[in-house]
Design brief:
elongated, mainly alpha
Length: 90
């Protein structure tokens, strides 16, 4: 609903908030990916700090399982066609 009515004044800020949270999650996932690649370049397949398996451990953290706002990222699965949306009262 917020996505479809984002042009309406009362939904503008909620839409900005949701898109900002999704962007933060994407940037965190991107950082995890870059960090894992950097570790592979620096230490290869050696053990990481704290006894972890290093690169392989970090690589496993790049999956969707570790997204903070996974539900928000999947909202597009629930879009309702605009023709079925109710008209707003102004």
């Amino acid at each position: 609903m917020i996505f479809h009515y984002r042009h309406e004044p009362q939904f503008h800020y909620p839409h900005l908030l949701l898109t900002s949270l999704i962007e933060i999650d994407q940037k965190m996932a991107q950082w995890r990916h870059y960090h894992a690649n950097m570790v592979q370049k620096m230490i290869g397949n050696l053990a990481g700090t704290g006894g972890s398996s290093g690169y392989m451990y970090l690589r496993s953290l790049c999956s969707d399982r570790y997204k903070v706002f996974l539900d928000l990222a999947n909202l597009s699965s629930y879009y309702i066609p605009m023709k079925y949306m109710p008209q707003l009262q102004t």
